[in-house]
């Protein structure tokens, strides 16, 4: 029976951490270990984790990690894990009871390296979010960004990138890291998360995987993703310069590794952006013909 490592990177997460840890207790699949990598929290995060450790039968391993970047904390979890599979859980999110079991069944049934699932969106009070600007642009990533309406299961391949919008190609098409179940060997083969990214490191890793392997997408909602002001996403997005730099790096990955799979419109915009003189020349020719 395969061991699943539930990896929980923490930093001052006491506000929602008890609820997150409770969702680990309630998993229908119980051959698990919990790996907590803490960035020397200054609130009572570690008290909550230590109390949780006393209440459960499965191993809970706690490590302190000097604060460098969110990626280094994620990677520390992976390095310290012993499982065959990696399931991330962040200090403000919640795994639904069948989350690990459903993902593990899917990954084994379809002989995959990695699967992800859809998610329910909640607010800081735990209530469902069904409207608002963020919801409108992010509630169904595959449908909104790839035109894929997934009810049950879908095998995502490079060919599905044809519908990505060139101007918004840094948009997440997979899901947050908690949405994934990874075979641990994928990190041994492709490397860990890129710590040069502050925000889009999960997206960069998703494309690194997709370059070589398909990704299974489960249509069921298997976790709850919490929207609140202090989450890492909102904090990191305040750095506009860094956000733009990372978006450009993702666009570079797409154009270097996946351009042949993109739509003609995407390819046209790419070449016009890369070779602006050609673009201007074509425009002059177009308007000259119209004038004639």
From TrEMBL:
<dbReference type="Pfam" id="PF00535">
    <property type="entry name" value="Glycos_transf_2"/>
</dbReference>
<dbReference type="GO" id="GO:0016758">
    <property type="term" value="F:hexosyltransferase activity"/>
</dbReference>
<protein>
    <submittedName>
        <fullName>Glycosyltransferase</fullName>
    </submittedName>
</protein>
<dbReference type="InterPro" id="IPR001173">
    <property type="entry name" value="Glyco_trans_2-like"/>
</dbReference>
<feature type="domain" description="Glycosyltransferase 2-like">
    <location>
        <begin position="5"/>
        <end position="188"/>
    </location>
</feature>
<dbReference type="InterPro" id="IPR029044">
    <property type="entry name" value="Nucleotide-diphossugar_trans"/>
</dbReference>
């Amino acid at each position: 029976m395969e061991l699943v490592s539930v990896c929980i990177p923490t930093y001052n997460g006491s506000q929602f951490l008890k609820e997150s840890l409770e969702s680990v207790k309630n998993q229908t699949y119980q051959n698990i270990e919990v790996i907590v990598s803490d960035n020397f929290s200054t609130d009572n995060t570690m008290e909550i984790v230590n109390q949780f450790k006393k209440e459960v039968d499965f191993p809970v391993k706690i490590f302190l990690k000097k604060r460098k970047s969110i990626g280094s904390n994620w990677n520390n979890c992976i390095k310290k894990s012993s499982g065959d599979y990696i399931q991330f859980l962040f200090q403000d999110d919640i795994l639904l009871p069948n989350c690990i079991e459903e993902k593990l069944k899917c990954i084994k049934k379809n002989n995959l390296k990695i699967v992800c699932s859809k998610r329910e969106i909640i607010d800081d009070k735990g209530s469902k979010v069904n409207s608002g600007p963020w919801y409108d642009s992010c509630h169904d990533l595959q449908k909104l960004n790839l035109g894929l309406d997934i009810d049950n299961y879908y095998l995502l391949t490079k060919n599905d990138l044809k519908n990505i919008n060139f101007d918004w190609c840094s948009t997440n098409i997979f899901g947050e890291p908690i949405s994934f179940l990874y075979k641990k060997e994928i990190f041994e083969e492709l490397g860990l998360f890129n710590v040069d990214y502050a925000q889009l490191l999960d997206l960069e890793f998703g494309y690194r995987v997709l370059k070589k392997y398909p990704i299974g997408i489960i249509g069921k909602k298997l976790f709850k993703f919490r929207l609140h002001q202090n989450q890492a996403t909102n904090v990191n997005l305040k750095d506009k310069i860094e956000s733009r730099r990372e978006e450009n790096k993702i666009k570079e990955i797409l154009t270097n590794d996946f351009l042949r799979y993109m739509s003609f419109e995407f390819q046209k915009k790419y070449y016009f952006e890369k070779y602006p003189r050609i673009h201007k020349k074509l425009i002059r020719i177009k308007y000259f013909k119209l004038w004639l």
